[in-house]
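Bumping my old thread because nobody answered last time. Still need a sequence for this structure:
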């Protein structure tokens, strides 16, 4: 390993022009990949498929996030009283204004609007067993007489021509029964005026379907158009000041999150780089060295992003955090190498100083690079949610290490005498620390032991969380509107989903029909509070045929038509007024169906086609705990059909399962890491005291990391796991640099020199890394902010372990040449 590191550096020293040309060529090849990069906000890709529920939720979110539907939420402003009439009037104005836009195909807040123009006989294929009695009663001779009287009373007075035509087309009132059927299977349709209105009358939802366009449907043009229309309508309408309006929907959120992600990536990267470079300049006081770091540090990031553009799909929002990780960790090799080079330059010419610096820290740089990148590359195996950020950061750290080992020596060779020698800041302080550790190592170790034991005593059981909402910043307008919509309609995370999928569309719809029967029975037993099912209006063809046949066996349609003709004649109606409707009723009804265009809003919410298969969604609203309702649904599931897979899932359910998985996974992960760490250190150093000197500080820092979370009640999340991996990667790096500087020719040297050299560089790298990860803590994405906080704690513990505990143990067990005489 040491030979490889030195040979890479020698290549840069001997062939500086060739090495720089290769680096520039790689950057040039990365440009097309950079241009192909995309940021995805498909939440389905962020759900780890470690269970049936999580796999199902990934499919659900994947389908919903591809819907092009836009939802407008009109709600009463905070502090104002509900005014349903004004709410409906303003909703109608907005719907008409949106529909008139060339950007919008249709817009409405009454989803049943337009349904009466269809054949009422569609009801025959939709009714279930519990509704058959009502339909049979409506078609009885007694009902015909009552209905004829109602029609006489209604049609004898002034009436809207459209309503008059509707009554003549539906003499039996079958559309009223269809409305009741829809209200039972789609509770939201049971609101005022069969519209999307919340139960408290404070909110109304508009369905807006954009005109199909090439490329992204939700771009700045459509967003600006809808915003301008609603502002114009709200400004002109009376009393609109008492309401507020916002847009949401999967594509709206995707567009806004994508914009926010790109903006934040630039801000975080720039802030990290500026803070790191200012700190470096303060410690090393060299503009040329600063320029070298400024030039080299982004190289690995750009090459990695270029490769990602070629080889990977769209990046999720969490992946942007890898830039801050690389800026925080990637500067470590540069600082250690430049620090060693400038220190060697105090007594050697440039070429000899470069070779001496490479021999001194090159092997540690290579070993640290491999260990850190290896730890980051484990993330995709431990948690797929963090897979992209781990993969990108791991590759970037590896590329950065190779760049520093080759390009940095090449620049030394080209600049020569223009890089001034400098022993650096803090040499005297390092010597004092080394002397203090020799004198008081026993006391320090005793205090650390007591402190760690006390912290462990304060640690509680531990709280585990895993949320999917950390990728949706609350301050984004579309996310705020989505949260408000869920709150108004009691859908804020507590609902469950039943998803049926398969390649045979009719088999999937038939399975969904069986789920409908199961859920209807559970609702009758008050074991669930309700459900929304596509089976209400789109049953399988075989199911619809069975229902029509069952109705024919129960009702003589020809006799019912004859009874209605007689009743209408007795009320004084002319025979021809209702004849078209009556004649069609006694004919075949197989072709009668609902308008497919009218059902498009329903399909966008409950049906998705992908990869040659159909996926049908049912929303279930629990009456008790989500986990208990999920268990009930699994116990009550209908018999599985061949080629059809069903899932019971939900956001709250998956979050609960993921938190339980974290609790189970953490001890196993700590055990595996501890054993692996002991094995690696054993292979490198072999001497028991050296191995224990490096192993114990890292083990203690891991223990403290977990204990701090438990003692403070801080939730342990997937990002806590990422912090553990970072602690291991950075901790190993720092320990390797310290030991490499301490072990001269394989034997203990000067502890003072080790601390003033490697320890001082570790301090600088820790401060710069804290600055880089500290920037993440201010991210509007909760997931990144949480990762930044966990990383900050990990870096602080790694520093204390390598610069305080490790030297204390070395002073106690493996004293060096500067140890005081006993």
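Sorry it took so long. Here it is:
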């Amino acid at each position: 390993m040491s030979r490889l590191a030195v040979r890479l550096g020698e290549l840069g020293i001997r062939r500086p022009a060739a090495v720089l040309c290769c680096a520039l060529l790689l950057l040039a090849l990365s440009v097309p990949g950079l241009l192909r990069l995309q940021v995805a906000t498909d939440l389905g890709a962020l759900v780890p498929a470690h269970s049936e529920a999580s796999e199902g939720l990934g499919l659900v979110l994947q389908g919903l996030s591809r819907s092009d539907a836009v939802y407008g939420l009109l709600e009463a402003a905070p502090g104002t009283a509900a005014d349903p009439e004004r709410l409906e009037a303003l909703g109608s104005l907005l719907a008409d204004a949106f529909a008139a836009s060339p950007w919008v195909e249709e817009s409405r807040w009454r989803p049943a609007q337009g349904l009466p123009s269809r054949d009422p006989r569609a009801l025959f294929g939709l009714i279930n067993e519990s509704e058959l009695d009502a339909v049979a009663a409506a078609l009885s001779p007694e009902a015909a007489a009552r209905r004829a009287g109602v029609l006489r009373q209604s049609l004898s007075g002034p009436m809207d021509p459209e309503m008059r035509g509707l009554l003549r087309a539906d003499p039996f009132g079958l559309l009223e029964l269809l409305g009741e059927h829809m209200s039972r299977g789609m509770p939201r349709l049971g609101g005022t005026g069969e519209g999307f209105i919340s139960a408290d009358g404070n909110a109304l939802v508009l369905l807006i379907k954009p005109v199909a366009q090439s490329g992204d449907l939700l771009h700045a043009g459509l967003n600006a158009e809808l915003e301008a229309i609603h502002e114009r309508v709200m400004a002109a309408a009376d009393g609109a000041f008492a309401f507020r309006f916002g847009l949401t929907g999967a594509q709206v959120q995707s567009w806004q999150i994508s914009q926010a992600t790109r903006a934040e990536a630039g801000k975080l990267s720039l802030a990290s780089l500026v803070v790191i470079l200012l700190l470096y300049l303060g410690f090393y006081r060299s503009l040329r060295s600063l320029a070298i770091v400024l030039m080299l540090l982004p190289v690995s990031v750009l090459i990695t992003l270029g490769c990602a553009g070629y080889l990977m799909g769209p990046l999720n929002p969490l992946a942007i955090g890898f830039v801050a990780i690389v800026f925080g960790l990637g500067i470590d090799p540069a600082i250690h190498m430049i620090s060693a080079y400038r220190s060697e330059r105090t007594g050697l010419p440039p070429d000899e100083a470069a070779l001496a610096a490479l021999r001194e820290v090159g092997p540690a740089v290579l070993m640290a690079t491999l260990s850190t990148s290896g730890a980051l590359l484990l993330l995709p195996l431990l948690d797929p949610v963090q897979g992209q950020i781990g993969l990108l950061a791991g590759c970037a750290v590896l590329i950065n290490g190779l760049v520093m080992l080759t390009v940095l020596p090449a620049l030394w060779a080209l600049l020569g005498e223009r890089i001034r020698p400098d022993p650096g800041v803090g040499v005297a302080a390092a010597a004092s620390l080394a002397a203090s550790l020799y004198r008081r190592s026993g006391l320090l170790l005793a205090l650390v032991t007591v402190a760690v034991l006390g912290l462990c005593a304060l640690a509680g059981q531990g709280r585990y969380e895993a949320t999917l909402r950390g990728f949706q910043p609350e301050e984004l307008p579309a996310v705020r509107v989505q949260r408000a919509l869920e709150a108004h309609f009691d859908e804020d995370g507590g609902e469950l989903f039943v998803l049926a999928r398969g390649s045979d569309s009719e088999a999937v719809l038939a399975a969904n029909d069986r789920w409908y029967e199961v859920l209807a029975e559970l609702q009758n037993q008050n074991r669930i509070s309700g459900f929304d099912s596509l089976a209400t209006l789109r049953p399988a063809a075989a199911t619809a045929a069975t229902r029509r046949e069952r109705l024919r066996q129960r009702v003589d349609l020809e006799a019912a038509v004859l009874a209605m003709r007689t009743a209408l004649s007795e009320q004084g109606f002319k025979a021809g007024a209702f004849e078209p409707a009556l004649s069609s009723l006694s004919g075949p009804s197989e072709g009668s169906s609902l308008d497919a265009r009218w059902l498009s809003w329903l399909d966008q919410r409950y049906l998705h086609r992908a990869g040659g298969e159909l996926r049908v969604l049912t929303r279930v609203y629990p009456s008790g705990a989500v986990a208990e309702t999920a268990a009930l649904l699994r116990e009550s599931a209908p018999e599985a059909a061949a080629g059809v897979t069903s899932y019971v899932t939900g956001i709250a359910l998956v979050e609960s399962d993921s938190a339980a998985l974290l609790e189970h996974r953490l001890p196993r992960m700590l055990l595996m890491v501890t054993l692996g760490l002991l094995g690696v250190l054993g292979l490198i150093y072999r001497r028991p005291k050296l191995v224990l000197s490096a192993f114990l500080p890292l083990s203690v820092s891991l223990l403290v990391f977990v204990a701090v979370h438990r003692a403070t009640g801080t939730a342990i999340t997937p990002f806590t796991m990422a912090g553990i991996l970072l602690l291991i990667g950075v901790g190993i790096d720092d320990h390797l640099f310290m030991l490499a500087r301490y072990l001269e020719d394989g034997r203990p040297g000067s502890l003072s020199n080790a601390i003033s050299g490697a320890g001082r560089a570790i301090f600088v790298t820790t401060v710069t890394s804290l600055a880089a990860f500290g920037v993440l803590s201010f991210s509007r994405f909760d997931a990144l902010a949480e990762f930044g906080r966990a990383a900050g704690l990990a870096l602080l513990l790694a520093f204390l372990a390598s610069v305080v505990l490790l030297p204390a143990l070395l002073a106690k067990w493996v004293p060096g040449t500067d140890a005081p005489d006993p």
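Residues 189-194 have pLDDT under 50 and may be disordered. Let me know if any region looks off to you.
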